[in-house]
Structures are given as structure tokens and as C-alpha cells.
Amino acid sequence: GLQDISVCQGAPTFMSYPHFYLAEAQQANFDGLAPDVEAHRTFMNVEPNTGMTLRLHSRVQLNIPVYNSRDMQANVTVLNDIMTVPAFPILWIDEGADIDSDPEMVKKLKKQLVTPLNILNIGKWTAIGVGMAIFALGGAMTFIKTCGK
């Protein structure tokens, strides 16, 4: 829906998602709006092992009320023919960052995350193999010692 941020701004101002995504009551006041989940939601993708943000998009629309002259104390004839709208979109902003747009960050992430994980995976299987070999060797030595008596 809408969030009233008038106290913060010092003027009647409302914040919403672009195209009034998740504010269906406001969509009825306008033609041509096409709220789209992928294009208008705010999201953040975080790499679970390091907590590093991979993608972030914060999408915000700023709105102000627009009044018909009948709804105002002052008579402004220019506003006679317009409809009063509680939240009229002024602008929307997409602040975002994608790690794949910066090759240096991708290289750094691979160096700090992928390489150590690959080494740990190789080390794990090597330790399992060595453990199985020691177990087999111990079993063989026990078998030889008991059969040799």
C-alpha cells in the first residue's frame, strides 16, 4: 500500500512501490498502470556462506495528493476539471547494485568463496579416502596376525 512520510518530508507525501504495486485501491485512480512483481518489487539476494549481497534493488515511488478546487479552501479555477487523487505519482526510483556488473567483485567473490570451498571439498574426500585406507590396512594387518599364529 501507501506509507505516509509527511512528517519526514514536511509536506503531504506518500511512498509506495512503482505503479502502485500492492496498492490496488490507488490503481483505480489511473489508466495505464501495469504493476509487475519482477519490475517493481524490492529485493536482495545474499550469498549464504559469506553474507555478501549479490543483487539489491530498492524500488520506491513518491506520491503527493492532488486536489480539485472544490476540495481546497482556495478557489483555483485551473483545478476545476481534475479529479482529487490522494496519491499522485511524481517519480519512482530504482536504486540497485548487481555484483555481476562488476568483474572485479566477481573475481574477488570466487577467490574468497569458491576456491576455499573447492579446497575443503577435495580435502574432505581425501580424508575419507585416507581413513578408509588406514581402516583396510588395519583390518589386513589384524587378519595376517591372527592367521599367522
Flag low-confidence runs: none
Element-level helix/strand string? EHEHHEEEH
Output the structural class: alpha+beta
Number of strands: 5
Helix amount: 25-40%
Q: C-alpha Rg, in Å? A: 31 Å
Portion of residues in beta strands equals: 15-25%
**Largest sheet, if any?**
5 strands, antiparallel
Describe what this molecule looks like in 3D:
This protein is α+β, with helices and mostly antiparallel strands. Helix content is 38%, strand content 25%. It contains four helices and five strands, in the order E-H-E-H-H-E-E-E-H. Strands 1, 2, 3, 4 and 5 form a five-stranded antiparallel beta sheet that branches. The longest helix has 45 residues, at 103-147. The protein is rod-shaped. It starts with a strand and ends with a helix.
Layout: helices, strands, pairs:
Elements: E1 3-4, H1 6-9, E2 14-16, H2 24-27, H3 37-40, E3 43-46, E4 53-66, E5 85-98, H4 103-147
Antiparallel strand pairs: 1-2, 2-4, 3-4, 4-5
Which descriptors would you attach to this protein?
rod-shaped, 5 strands, single chain, alpha+beta, 149 residues
Please summarize what this structure is.
The chain is α+β, with helices and mostly antiparallel strands and 149 residues long. Helices cover 38% and strands 25% of the residues.
